[in-house]
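Handoff note, outgoing to incoming analyst
You'll be picking up this chain. Sequence as last confirmed:
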Amino acid sequence: MKRFHAPALLIAAPLAACLLLAGCGSSVTVHNRLVPPEQSAADLKRALDSGAITQKEYEEEMEKLRDSQ
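Most recent structure output, in case you need it:
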């Protein structure tokens, strides 16, 4: 039966956590092609009207939507 060495475990655990979390900061944008642009525009308008997003955010997202077509 092998015993774990405490110093190795103290180094390996944080290293593994850092490697797992490294991918979380990705700046890759995924475009959902299943939702028609008209539906996306309507969803953005509803989000604006409900106060979930600001006017500036709405305009930025609409610009991205227009650029992706």
